[in-house]
Design a protein that fits this description.
Helix content: 25-40%
Number of helices: 2
Number of strands: 3
Order of helices and strands: EHEEH
Distance between the termini: 17 Å
Structural class: alpha+beta
Number of domains: 1
Strand content: 15-25%
Amino acid sequence: MTVTFPLTEKRDAEALLKHLTLHKLTFPGNCAVSLKPEVALVSSPHTTALGAARTAW
C-alpha cells in the first residue's frame, strides 16, 4: 500500500520519519519513503499502521 503525506515547512521529511516511527514504521526497515517537493510517498505492507499514521498526520 502506498500513501501520500503532504509536506510543509513545519511538517518536513524529518518530522515525517519521526511520526512514522511512532506508528512502528521504520525506514528502511518495513517501509519505503519517496520524497517529492511537496509530498512524500510512503509504501509499506503494514497497511493498518500506515493508515493510522496517515490519519494522524
